[in-house]
Amino acid sequence: MSDLNRGIMKFEGADSPKSVTISTVLVLGSIAVLILWALSSAYAIN
Description:
There is one protein chain. The protein is mainly α. Helices cover 59% and strands 0% of the residues. The longest helix is centred in the middle third of the chain and has 27 residues, at 17-43. The protein is elongated. The model has no long low-confidence stretch (mean pLDDT 80).
């Protein structure tokens, strides 16, 4: 068992490149949306 198949993602194939890519896109996308929301709320960009 690889180290990536432990912890929260305890399912078969958790360390596959497809799963890692999808997770990365979701996490980075969420962070980007939160940053844009914070900037638009704080500085009234639009």
